[in-house]
Fold this protein.
Amino acid sequence: MLTAAIFFPILAAIVFALVPRPKLASVASDAPETPAASSDDSAGAVGNAPDPAYRKYERRMQLAATAVAAVPLLLMVVAWLRFDSTGGFEQVESVSWIPTLGIGYRVGLDGLSLSLAAMTALIFVVAIAYPVDLRGRAAPYFSLMLFLMGVSLGLFLALDLFLFFVFWDVSLVGMYFLIGAWGHGDAQRSALKFFVYTFSGSLALLLAILGIYLATDPRTFDMAEIIRQQPLPATGLYATLVFLGFFIGFAVKTPIVPFHTWLPPAHVDAPGPASAILAGVLLKMGTYGFVRILMSMMPETFERFALPLGILAVISILYGSLVALAQSNVKRLIAYTSVNHMGYVILGLAVAGAAAAGKADSQAIALTGATVEMVAHGLITGALFLIAGSLLARTHTYEMDEYGGLAGRARALTGLTVIAAFASLGLPALAGFVAEFQIFAGALAIYPWLAVIGLVGIVITAALMLRMLQKLLLGPLPVRWMSFPDLGRAEIAALAALAAFVVIIGVVPAWLLNVIDSFAGPLVGRG
Amino acid sequence: MTALSLLLVPLGAAGVLVLLRGKPSALGPVGVAALLATLALGAWAAVSEPTLGWDWSPAIHTGLAVEGFSRVMVVLVPAIAAPIFVYAAATEEEGRLRLLALMLVFTGAMLLLVTAADFLMLLIAWELVGAISWALIGHGWRDTENARSAAQAFVTTRVGDLGLYIAAGALFAATGSFSLAAVGGAGGWEVDVIAGGVLLAAAAKSAQVPFSPWLFAAMAGPTPVSALLHSATLVAAGAYLLIRIAPDLDAAGWFLPAVAATGLVTALAGGIVASVQQHAKRALAGSTSAQYGLMFVAVGASSTAAAGGQLVTHAAFKSLLFLGAGVYIHASGSPTLGGAPLGRALPRIAAFSAVGVLALAAVPPLGGAWTKEEIVAAAVDESAWLGAGLFAAGFLTALYASRYQVLTFFGPGGPRHAAELRHRPGTFEIGSIAALAAFTLALSLLWVPGAATVVEDATGGHLAPSAWWEPVASIASIALGFGLVWAIWRRGALTTLGLPVRLREAAGDWLGLPTATRLFVVAPVMVLSRLLARLDDRVVDAGVRGVGWLAAAISRLFSLRVEWSIDGLVRGAAAGTWRAAVGSRLADEVGVDGAVEGAARSVGFGGEQSRRLQTGLAHHYYVIAAVGLAATVGALAAFGLAKGS
């Protein structure tokens, strides 16, 4: 079933890639009122004068892609219902692949994989359904989106390091093209920077994977087996190098300061839905790797580096929020809050992985909190980036100073933006709080000073989010936005789906926390 | 379930209001009915002391409980909110539905705060109350200034929220529980951390020094909002928390003295600030900080009972005063003090306001005087200095209270008939003010013998014995304040107090505290933030760009020697793989070296490939990626073979 969730969208992506571009001559004959000017390439690119027949084709493609994407989401719901939370990997599907190397096709899940994969499926459905300027290339866009969906699900569900790496690397390619081809501004350059930067990170990751592979006996890429074997000693140059390899790979992807500079340009120039996926799903691959590989496969080495990692996390928290505070570009601002939020996650992980006898309760809630933050950040920042995309589509600018007073014009936009912004600043009864409260409550038992310094981040986040709301929505409405159109139905539905989960997780978190706790408790050795 | 229904009734009513948006006349009655129902539920809860617990997560248990001082709060909050709601429904026009619905939600959140049985629920309510107050304060959002004030209020109180995060975490570290009842069981460093966190949270919420100025910013909200925030909600949360758990934190020896010191400083500073104010609502806002300062002093002097009593009497007379100020502002068209007094045109409002003022100035036999006496008794019992400070504070209170009343309602001149006013208060306005005045008067029952036992029982604290000279000294200090106002008024200098403008403005603006905050906190943070943003753009990223440039340079060097083509790439990859294979055959360690070499080569490819991509030859990447993948698989195969042989 998990295999179906991974490969159904990938197969569908191939089908989409093969769909021919509609012949506009025949389209024109269907809709005679269409001006003849709609020649091949300008069809979708001219946003203000779309060819209605072509728009219809785009809508059909979008509907089809959304329907395809809904299948893995449904499968993840079934997986959730079947999940029995007794610990360990379940719903495992495995096929021998290259047995001489110990490579197998193995997928399965535990509380971590399940919550991240379910979140991934949801975000992809929403992102695919979200209206966006397709630049007249509908089929390739949805093909790439579905491909990326399958790959991302595969990464979170893979139980084989080799498979994990394949998905890891291929995801970069998909995102590269999404940014490069459908982005705006200096999209090519941003896409390239994203690609080269994260690709070099993945080279470090590859080396580390080989390093840990060579230490296994018998040699295997099977994650569950490696976790059982714990092949590397706590100390020594070899283990340290392997640790650093993994660390660089994951730190670039997460990103942790100072490996974050690929993030802002990539986000700013990416189309809204791609940003939502980049922030919501791709960043989580890094933090997922921290838990699944570093904390599970080499916990003793992780212990040695927990404090420095915690310090880096706090630097990320403060640095990300302070730099975000100075931004005038709304998308850059959101991008930097990602750095800040990933700092919370890493702080939680550092706390959970620290050497602290007798504090397993606090470590468990820190790890649970960090995992909730991964899910919550996906939903919240996904929503914020989609909103930013909608703003751009209406006004062609991200500069916050150009806006103001939209609360009087666009009620749906205002309501959803306020929810997303307050969720992002960690307001209780919304998902971000469930995460941040547990991270900091846990951290205070292990690294009290880091926790106290890191907490300053939530004040700065509050200031910058309120400033954003104020600049976009409040105050007088500039004359030229007098006819600013509110969100359309598709946009409202997509954002409302994300907002609904943000609220549900915030108000009644137990259903999610139960699943997460089923892996977090055992991982920190809580009795 | 009673505990839960306390929150759900106002929340549900807010939802009903939204559904009723087509019928504006129904909003008021529905909201008031809901608040009265909440009041009844609160009274029932105060007697039945319900509790409710559930698992928030497998590791965290949470719940609600009406116990200790929260028995008083569950009655007080809806009792004060109801008349204020009537006033708001009768007077507010712009965004009326939003305002009324938010006031109900706000009341529900405050009830969650006072029924929270643990730090988790407390923090949830604490921040929700703050966030809803953001929306209430920024009600007139079309004015950028209001939005900014709302943000200032929220961010300042959020600094205090950190205290609760810290306290919650430290409590969990010490006891493995978040329960308020567990606080007494904590020991070691955690107690100090919990105490510090609680003090920070309470001081920020109750607008104590140095956080007081946010309360001025909160004046940007409509008058009923101010009345609600200042009396039984939001600002009251800080004092409520201290009354609930301060006695359990006695193990941190510095805690109670620090609470008392914070309170005394605020009481004195707030008194000065209120005395020189030219703005009706600001005069009352300064007084709010000062009055909560008195409660802090009481808590610090180990008399949570006196603090609890003061919280109740203050809630009654301060909401009364704010609504009266609202009428004054509406009727005169300006919030500025020193215009024409309106006592002759509005005799009833003037009388009600006088009740509030006398209670504020602690004139017997009003309830405010009784609680004030109990605070003085506790303070004198604790230390002579604290007692002396309180007499000074009492003098200032009498001064600003009587000055406020004279300038708004009691002076000579002014219009003679209500018809001359810009706005005549309607039945509902007068009725709601009358209800609060009646409540204030009814609290005089505190002077009845035996009331002390009731207060001690309701708060779970103790009252200190009072010496004979304390009431005498109190009354003397009040008389001195009244007398001074009388004397200054005779000279016609009551508006300015005869002080130079600059001094008055500096003192009135929280003695320069906001300026200091801007200079020493906000400005440095903004400078740092801009600096880091620039650093991020130029330096951190420059390192990355430098590496990219270096890689490009190296690959250019390469390309001088090797004729680059797809074939060349494949050959290179094959060579790398071969070398890696040979290496790994020798030993695993060497194999790793081989892999490193291979990787170094790939970086070279990467650089060249980047250059190609930059020239727009994106399709080359397909081939390169395929080759890279093949090389990876090949390398792994080689390792596998090496292992097999």
